[in-house]
Amino acid sequence: MKFMKYGFLSLIFLLGVSLFVGCSSDEETTEIRLAEVTRSIFYAPLYVAISEGFFEEEGIEIDLTTTWGGDTTMTTLLSDGADVALVGAETSIYVYAQGANDPAINFAQLTQTDGTFLVSREPVEDFEWDDLKGSTFLGQRAGGMPQMVGEYVLKQNGIEPHEDLELIQNIDFGNIPSAFASGTGDYVQLFEPQATQFEEDGIGYIIDSFGTQSGNVPYTVFMSKQSYLEENEEALESFTRAIYKAQQWVQEQPEEVVAESIVDFFEDTSLETIEQVIERYRDQGSYAETPILDEDGWYLLQEMMDESGELPMDVPYEDLVNTDIPNQIVNE
């Protein structure tokens, strides 16, 4: 009888511990609302961090929303519709220049080159950038990173974008591929997987990469409002740790393994195409290997903005870049 009594009490105790542990686990999980500027294979390490459970390991639950465009993404962040934004670092400069009381702070880098490719309507043998002179070039929206990098690369190759070619920049980001497919432009600046899909369909031909031409810049970064970062530094450390795990994983795994990990995020893209895109981005060093946004890249970004007439003011590195979080994670 005594044995049954103690056994019953032990069972109650074990159940209590189990319930307590369950509650504790829930309390330790932090939800972070993440707004991404677009859905792109260019952001593969983010999707890997979700699908491989790296966020979960760090006690982070991601609520991911695609907000389609830099303006919309920053509006979402600044109006507290998101805790973290994945967007071009230039947007934080625009916000800062407007005198924001609670600026957006860049705390982790995801991509470190431009993600677009130069696509021609016809095959081009022995391509040289001078071939673009006198052509119709379908570029990206003014003020965004693709446009600024595009113009910077053209100038680096001796082409004045607004003088040496007919530059079209009034087409919405999402409609640029269809505009080219329907006959607009001799050349177009395209992200993946559209560039590879156009090659497969015989619509266009990849002849060069803006990413390899431009050098390393903080092209896409994670940022949060300064107030959120100060109040949730531990959560953002965990977030960044998960991203760093994913960055290392993407570098180490074969492209087919990475493609399999993220395929569910791209229902309309074949596994084979995803593999090709990952290989191309990885070979040209587009995926940042660590979350650290370096100082040289920050000032190259502002040089590009200035070249295109879009830099509202010079912003010191330390004003909008948090280095404590990524440096701590990388040096652990």
UniProtKB/TrEMBL annotation:
<dbReference type="Pfam" id="PF13379">
    <property type="entry name" value="NMT1_2"/>
</dbReference>
<comment type="similarity">
    <text>Belongs to the bacterial solute-binding protein SsuA/TauA family.</text>
</comment>
<protein>
    <recommendedName>
        <fullName>ABC transporter substrate-binding protein</fullName>
    </recommendedName>
</protein>
<keyword id="KW-0732">Signal</keyword>
<dbReference type="GO" id="GO:0042597">
    <property type="term" value="C:periplasmic space"/>
</dbReference>
